[in-house]
Design a protein that fits this description.
Oligomer: single chain
CATH superfamily of the largest domain: NAD(P)-binding Rossmann-like Domain
CATH class of the largest domain: Alpha Beta
Order of helices and strands: EHEHHEEEEHEHEHEHEHHHHEHEHEE
Radius of gyration: 24 Å
Largest sheet: 8 strands, mixed
Length: about 425
């Protein structure tokens, strides 16, 4: 791949701040691509693990990248930044706590500001500062302001936003193969940072301004959320009418211009379930469809919980005892171990809070701090109700003879 960065300014040292689900894969990929990478995290446990070539998160192939990078001496981690040519911020952007559950979540960019302040003493003229954290529109400009307020001469910097677009379970592959968007504070910053990403990304790297790049990330996940909301709402409507939603969708999708997605138990993960609120927060009067979609998808997990509770209560009366409920799946999507923002996880917690006899089956994790786990065969043997919450491949072809099955993800269709 051709490197279009002027030879005098080719970066060799990269500082990645935040070594989580995006930061650590990015740091290890860069280190294995020949860069000298200094990783920074606030957790001493994470720093120590990485320096020993271990990974604190579950992601296929990441361990081999980290081990190789550390053993070559190209990746080390610490609690503080150090002088580099490129600074990449991959810190969390959670929500502020709210005392009113009815209020839309409000994005919290405090970690981004803290990261910008932390690198300020080490940033010099000619450096690149890149924000990768999913952020509200305007956050890249906030990074620039934070650095300027800390005394950094921003005129000599290339500051840009580059959203990640990776799928958990395929992060190491998609970091390289997916197209990327670079949004610079200036056109010069866009081109220079774009050239940097082209040294290790095989997908096409597109240039734009920082606000457009920030909005693109939010819009991508909001688009998916809206389409999932249609499918989830359809599933609830069909349940009221006694219609098989899976058959309905299959028939409707025979139309050449219709492609309805598959419903589920809700929407989880740290992107689709989160990013739309960033748009709603900044434009609550205009983002009406986006907000409604979020509310529909959040309501789906409550609807599922209510259905399972109703079925369990009815069976309690027939059995003369508490019905045993096996919930299949805790992850936020099939075939991964990631439980972040998982609707299945919340459904199981709510069932337990209502006194249900619940056991969960999650083949991708060994233990859970608050939910009893069982092997699939054991859970099926002792259950009266089987609630399928996640379409893991291990659940396909189940023998559910004699069980009351509640399938919320289409596992048993076809």
């Amino acid at each position: 791949m051709t490197n279009s960065i002027p030879m005098a300014s080719i970066p060799t040292r990269v500082c990645v701040v935040g070594l989580g689900y995006i930061g650590l894969p990015t740091a290890s990929l860069l280190a294995c691509s020949g860069y000298v990478v200094h990783g920074v995290d606030v957790s001493e446990r994470i720093v120590n693990a990485i320096n020993q070539g271990e990974i604190p998160i579950d992601e296929p192939d990441l361990d081999s990248f980290v081990t190789a990078a550390v053993s070559r001496g190209n990746l080390k981690a610490s609690l503080k930044p150090e002088s580099s040519d490129v600074f990449i911020l991959c810190v969390p952007t959670p929500f502020h706590p709210s005392s009113n559950p009815a209020d839309p979540p409000k994005p919290n960019v405090d970690y981004v500001v803290s990261a910008a302040k932390a690198i300020a003493p080490y940033v010099k003229a000619g450096d690149m500062v890149i924000l990768e954290s999913t952020s509200p529109v305007g956050t890249t400009l906030l990074v620039q302001k934070t650095l300027a307020d800390a005394g950094v001469d921003i005129t000599g910097l290339s500051i840009a936003y580059c959203p990640e677009r990776v799928l958990p379970g395929k992060i190491m592959t998609e970091l390289v193969l997916n197209d990327r968007i670079i949004g610079g504070v200036t056109s010069e910053a866009t081109e220079r940072v774009k050239s940097f990403y082209e040294t290790f990304v095989k997908g096409t790297v597109f240039g734009t301004d920082c606000k457009t790049a920030e909005m693109a990330k939010l819009v991508e996940n909001s688009f998916r959320d809206v389409n999932i909301a249609f499918a989830n709402e359809l599933s609830m409507l069909c349940a009221e009418e006694g219609i098989n939603v899976w058959e309905l969708i299959e028939l409707a999708n025979r139309h050449p211009r219709v492609k309805i997605l598959q419903p589920g138990a809700g929407v989880g993960g740290h992107c689709i379930a989160v990013d739309p609120w960033f748009i709603v927060d900044q434009n609550p009067e205009l983002a009406r469809i986006i907000r409604t979609a979020r509310e529909v998808n959040d309501s789906k997990q409550k609807w599922v919980t209510h259905q399972i509770l109703s079925e369990a209560n009815s069976m309690d009366a027939k059995l003369g005892r508490k019905a045993n409920v096996a919930c299949l799946g805790l992850a936020f999507k099939p075939d991964i171990a990631d439980l972040r923002e998982s609707p299945a996880l919340e459904i199981v917690h709510e069932l337990m809070e209502h006194g249900c006899n619940v056991v969960a089956v999650e083949p991708n994790i060994d233990t859970h701090s608050s939910i009893p786990l069982a092997q699939l065969s054991e859970a099926l043997d002792h259950s009266d109700i089987v609630a399928v919450l996640v379409k893991h491949r291990q659940f396909k072809g189940l023998d559910t003879t004699g069980k009351r099955v509640l399938d919320y993800c289409g596992l048993l269709v076809g």
